[in-house]
Amino acid sequence: MDRVPVLKIGDILLVSIQIDMEDQVALQLQEDLADRIVATGCHGVIIDISALDIVDSFVGRTLATIAAVSRVLDAETVVVGMRPAVAITLVELGLQLPGIRTALNVELGMDLLARERGDDDGDDGDDVEGTDTPAVSTP
Amino acid sequence: MTLSVDEAARFAALLEENQDALVAAWTEQVAATLRGRLSQAELQRQTAELRRGFQQALAGAARDLSGESTAELRAQLAELSASRARQGFSATETAVSVFALKEAVLGVLGDYSSDAATLKDYVAFSSFVDQAALFTFDSYVRVREELIADQTEQLLELSTPVVKLWEGVVAVPLVGTLDSARAQVVMERLLQTLVDTGSPYAIIDITGVPAVDTQVAQHILKTVVAARLMGADCIISGIRPQIAQTIVALGIEFGDIATKSSLADALRYVLAQTGRKAR
C-alpha cells in the first residue's frame, strides 16, 4: 500500500502528499503523523498539497481531522501550496476547510509556524515577532 | 434565374470587349459611395481585378457562384470584403463595390440593340451579380465578427492586470463592469500571481467599477474566499461613498474581510500588518 512519507525538519514535520488520497492512505497518514508527533515532540506540521489536483470533501475532512489531532498533541498544522484551480473549485462547490490554517508555500508556512511559536514563548522575553499573522485561518 | 452557358459566354465576351469603359464606370460608381476614403488608383486596381475575376468565371461557363470555375472569383470577393471590413467601411459601402457592376454593364449594354433577349440576358446576369454581392456581405459579416471576438479577448486581457505593489503585496485595479466571465479571469489571474510571487497579501481595488450589485459582490467574495483557502489575505479598497451606501442598502456582508476607502489606506494597513515582522 502507498504511504505518505513524514519528514522531520527541525521542530517541524513536513508531509508532502504526492499520491491520490484514498481512504486507506489518509487513515494511515493520520496514524503515522500522530505517532511521529509523539515520538519526535515536534510542535509544527506542514502538509504540502501542491501536487494534489483534486481536493474533495473527504480530503478536506481528513485534513481537518489531522489538524485537530495535532492540536491535541500540541502541534500546529498548516496546509500549504493549494493550487488556484483547487481553491476555485472548493469555492464554487461551497466547500470550506474549517479549522485549517493555510499558507501559499512551505516557506511561508514555516514562517507562520515560527511566529505562532514566538507568540507562545512570549513570556520567555524573546518576543521579537509580531502578533499579526499574514496567513489566515479559513472561516 | 441562372445563367445559361451561352449567356455566360456572351457576357464574358462583353466584359472583355468593353473592359476599359466598364472599369471606368464601375470605379466612378464605387468612388461616389466611398467618398474619397480610398484612392482612385487603389479602386481602379480593385475593380480591374474583380472584372477579370467575373470575366474568367463567366468564360468558365459558371451558372452560379458555387461552381468550380468561380473559386477564384469567390477568393477575390472574400479578400475584398475582408479588407473593407478591416478598414471600417459599412456593409452597404462594401456591397456597392459589387453591385456597381450592374450599373456599369447596363451602361455598356445601352450601345447594343435593346430587345427582349438582351433584357433576359441582363436579368440573368444581374442575379449572378446579386449572388456575388450576397457572398461579399457574408464574408464581410464573418470578418467583422472575428474582429469583434478578437477585440473582446484583447479587452479582457487589457483590463485585468495584476501588479506588484510591495514585497509580498499584489494589487488588482478593477476597471469597468465586472461580469461573470471577467470575474473568472480576474480570480484565476490573481490566484496564479499569488502562487507565482508567493505574496501573502492581495488588494482588490474597485475604484474603477461603476456599480456594485449583489452579483459583483458575490464574485469579489468568491475571489477572497479562494485566496484565503490558499493562505493569502485579501483587502478590498477603493470603495466610493455611493458604493458604500449601495452595499449597505443591499445588505451585502463582507464579514471579516478588511475594506478600505483608498488603495493608499489598504497598502498602509498591509504594511502595518507585516511591518513588525519585517523589522
TrEMBL record, chain A:
<dbReference type="InterPro" id="IPR051932">
    <property type="entry name" value="Bact_StressResp_Reg"/>
</dbReference>
<protein>
    <submittedName>
        <fullName>STAS domain-containing protein</fullName>
    </submittedName>
</protein>
<dbReference type="InterPro" id="IPR002645">
    <property type="entry name" value="STAS_dom"/>
</dbReference>
<feature type="compositionally biased region" description="Acidic residues">
    <location>
        <begin position="119"/>
        <end position="130"/>
    </location>
</feature>
<dbReference type="Pfam" id="PF01740">
    <property type="entry name" value="STAS"/>
</dbReference>
<feature type="domain" description="STAS">
    <location>
        <begin position="2"/>
        <end position="113"/>
    </location>
</feature>
<feature type="region of interest" description="Disordered">
    <location>
        <begin position="115"/>
        <end position="139"/>
    </location>
</feature>
<dbReference type="InterPro" id="IPR036513">
    <property type="entry name" value="STAS_dom_sf"/>
</dbReference>
Automatic annotation (TrEMBL), chain B:
<dbReference type="Pfam" id="PF14361">
    <property type="entry name" value="RsbRD_N"/>
</dbReference>
<protein>
    <submittedName>
        <fullName>STAS domain-containing protein</fullName>
    </submittedName>
</protein>
<dbReference type="Pfam" id="PF01740">
    <property type="entry name" value="STAS"/>
</dbReference>
<feature type="domain" description="STAS">
    <location>
        <begin position="159"/>
        <end position="270"/>
    </location>
</feature>
<dbReference type="InterPro" id="IPR051932">
    <property type="entry name" value="Bact_StressResp_Reg"/>
</dbReference>
<dbReference type="InterPro" id="IPR002645">
    <property type="entry name" value="STAS_dom"/>
</dbReference>
<keyword id="KW-0597">Phosphoprotein</keyword>
<dbReference type="InterPro" id="IPR036513">
    <property type="entry name" value="STAS_dom_sf"/>
</dbReference>
<dbReference type="InterPro" id="IPR025751">
    <property type="entry name" value="RsbRD_N_dom"/>
</dbReference>
